[in-house]
Design a protein that fits this description.
The complex is a heterodimer of chains A (301) and B (349). Helices cover 69% and strands 1% of the residues of chain A. With 301 residues, chain A is mainly alpha-helical. Chain A has one domain (31-299). The two termini of chain A are 26 Å apart. Chain B starts with 7 loop residues before the first helix and ends with a helix. The chains are: A mainly alpha (301), B alpha/beta (349). Chain A binds chain B through residues 4-6, 9, 12, 14, 17-19, 21-29, 33, 36-37, 39-40, 44, 47-48, 51-52, 115, 118-120, 122-124, 126-129, 301, and chain B through 74-77, 96-97, 99-101, 104, 106, 108-115, 119, 122-124, 126-131, 133-134, 137-138, 140-141, 144-145, 149, 174-176, 206-209, 346.
């Protein structure tokens, strides 16, 4: 049964005896099979997202609150410290875009815990495919769905005083994709261990806000007290918010001094981390977490 | 306890079109299988074979080792010792090959209730690598088989419990497995739905060349099997066709209601040498062949008879005679109620 073969299907007429069962020879596992499995797990995430409008709407509320309520309210105070022509909303915009994908990506991964509670995970785990293919499909699915969500926030760029520059938009989408993948991988890794959905939600809620606040999404990364400087440098989210902010500010019409004050870049003891390395750190973390997640799922059953 | 591993019994009892077992390797063969969880020995050295094409049932109370055994055969649990092969492949060494060759229907639902029936099946087809050209026709075939073709575009969460179970059976068959495993296929369903599930399973045996292995703690369901194994405390205590098992228990039970019960009991003892007693307000006794005995009873008993009933030994009697208790003595009903509750709770969320 090495090659998939099919004979002509008997035209099934309702009520008629289907004595000629359609021959199905399931092929040996291999790369193509795994790819197909990854594909369908990915597609399921998209279908679920499309039919779950409520989730799409609710996960947009938080970025809106931050951008327009907090951004406008705090802006009247913080704006005094900003160079002329720069709005506080513009400053926090890259961080808010990142936040737009934060919840969706982790929720997506959390559906594994949900699937375990409702049995569907078993359907995936008993299939004759590589577990890695399933984990990868899940991470890519979560990344895609979360990036869609991020694109909606990107569409609001004009309201935050950010220009609709094609190069900028594409750069930001690429960075969102990377961030979403890493976040989903993080969620999947956690979901391998946590068996109850409530526990998963509680734990991620507990982690998400500190990660967001420490990422420099709401303030510049220079001139902070030492303890906060150290904490911001440990937060992985910092390494994606910073390149996003640098991308946004490089497309604004502002003086080099203002640029340096607002988007100084992440520095390690005075050395400014290049954007490429920043993104590389995020990618590496994503890869490591996928590997851990696969190992975890290979251990069970 | 001697365990019969031959396939002859299955052959002679199988009514289906394809003669099972004839010159083919057994679909399942198990030898000296054990599974230990810490101090608990869930399965204690069981051996049996299931012929290709046979419908084989594991009958026993909850906690007897049925689920552990089926999980080992489905490659979900590794045995502590012993061997098991399904469709000719070792369940430990050739896990993925076994998985490609089996279909699984678990006790608890494993459907994605937020997808349609069709989407659930497509997911399964891709995961099991069903050749792309075969997916659509095969999907239609299995959905029609369980009567859900018209509802294929409905979300699974709009399905009743019985429809969900039927869809799971259809999905289990989608990749044309050699062996279909059904773990308590009708647990938590109402009697009408249970009998309709059995109609589909029996129908399936006619249509597809497939071996079915199922577990149940319902006596009446075990009757549908070609052969059954009675399992208790992790061991097989009896294995044969339902007919042969019932025959091994022997006598039919006859109950009569008469004008004068005491006189009837005396007459039965005197004339036929039968020991009768009052049970459930009726004169009750056992004879070898109840149907042949009744005409003699009418002809020879002096006491007027108002009614007669003859009952063949049921699998309940079989279970009783091999284990010393009825299956209902165990906590089965309590566990059922709890599972049904859990399912209702799950659906509401």
């Amino acid at each position: 049964m090495a090659t998939p073969t099919t004979t002509e299907p008997a035209a099934p007429a309702t009520g008629a005896l289907l004595t000629d069962a359609i021959r199905v020879a399931v092929p040996e596992s291999g790369f193509r099979q795994d790819l197909r499995a990854t594909g369908i797990v990915w597609r399921r995430e998209l279908i679920r997202f499309r039919t779950d409008r409520l989730r799409a709407v609710t996960s947009l509320i938080q970025p809106f609150l931050f951008l327009f309520i907090l951004g406008t309210g705090l802006g009247s105070l913080a704006g005094r410290g900003l160079p002329a022509g720069i709005n506080f909303r513009t400053f926090i915009y890259p961080g808010v875009v990142a936040m737009g994908v934060l919840f969706t990506a982790i929720f997506s991964a959390g559906s594994i815990v949900w699937d375990r509670e409702f049995g569907f995970l078993r359907e995936m785990l008993v299939a004759p495919v590589n577990r890695g293919a399933i984990v990868l499909g899940k991470c890519l699915g979560g990344a895609t769905v979360a990036t869609f969500q991020g694109i909606i926030v990107l569409a609001l760029a004009g309201l935050a005083g950010v220009p609709y520059n094609p190069v900028l938009i594409i750069t930001l989408i690429g960075e969102l994709l990377l961030l979403s993948f890493t976040l989903t991988a993080f969620g999947v890794m956690m979901a391998a261990r946590i068996k109850q959905f409530q526990a998963f939600m509680a734990l991620t809620q507990m982690l998400v806000l500190p990660l967001f606040f420490l990422s420099g999404a709401l303030y510049p990364l220079n001139g902070l007290p030492t303890w906060l400087t150290i904490l911001t440098r440990i937060d992985p989210l910092t390494y994606i918010v910073d390149p996003m902010r640098r991308a946004v500010f490089s497309h604004l019409n502002i003086s080099p001094a203002a640029l340096h004050a607002l988007a100084p870049g992440v520095s390690w003891g005075g050395w400014v981390v290049p954007e490429g390395l920043s993104l590389g750190i995020v990618a590496l973390m994503g890869a490591v977490m996928v590997v851990i997640a696969i190992a975890e799922f290979n251990k069970t059953e | 306890m001697a365990v019969q591993t031959g396939t002859e019994a299955g052959d002679s009892a199988h009514p289906g079109p394809a003669k099972p077992g004839a010159g083919r390797d057994p679909a399942i063969s198990v030898s000296e299988l054990t599974k230990r969880y810490g101090d608990l020995e869930a399965v204690r050295g069981i051996s049996f074979e299931v012929a290709a094409g046979e419908t084989f049932g594991f009958l026993g109370p909850n906690g007897a080792g049925k689920s552990t055994t089926i999980s080992i055969l489905c490659t979900l649990v590794r045995p502590t010792s012993g061997r098991a092969a399904v469709a000719g492949h070792d369940v430990v060494a050739e896990r993925d090959t076994v998985r490609r060759n089996i279909g699984l229907v678990f006790q608890d639902t494993t459907l994605d209730s937020y997808l349609t029936a069709e989407q659930n099946l497509r997911f399964h087809a891709d995961l099991y690598g069903v050749p792309k050209a075969a997916v659509a026709p095969r999907m239609r075939q299995v959905l029609e088989m369980v009567g859900l073709w018209d509802r294929r575009e409905s979300l699974v969460r709009t399905y009743s419990g019985g429809m969900q179970r039927r869809l799971e059976i259809a999905r289990g068959l989608l990749h044309a497995p050699h062996v279909l495993f059904l773990d308590e296929p009708t647990v938590g369903l109402d009697p009408q739905t249970r009998s309709s599930i059995w109609r589909y399973i029996n129908d399936l045996k006619q249509r597809e060349d497939i071996t079915i292995f199922l577990t149940t703690h319902y006596m009446d369901e075990a009757e549908h099997c070609d052969r059954i194994a009675i399992i208790d405390h992790g061991q097989i205590v009896a294995i044969d066709t339902p007919e042969a098992l019932k025959a091994s228990v022997g006598k039919d039970r006859v109950q009569i209601s008469t004008a004068d019960d005491q006189a009837a009991i005396a007459a039965l003892a005197e004339r036929f040498g039968l020991e009768a007693a009052m049970h459930e307000g009726l004169v009750t006794f056992s004879v070898e062949s109840g149907e042949e005995f009744v005409p003699r009873l009418f002809a020879e008993l002096d006491v007027a008879i108002r009614s007669v009933s003859v009952a063949r030994p049921s699998l309940d009697d079989v279970f009783m005679s091999y284990t010393g208790r009825t299956i209902r003595d165990t906590e089965a009903t309590g566990a059922d109620a709890m599972r049904a509750m859990a399912q209702r709770f799950g659906r509401r969320r």
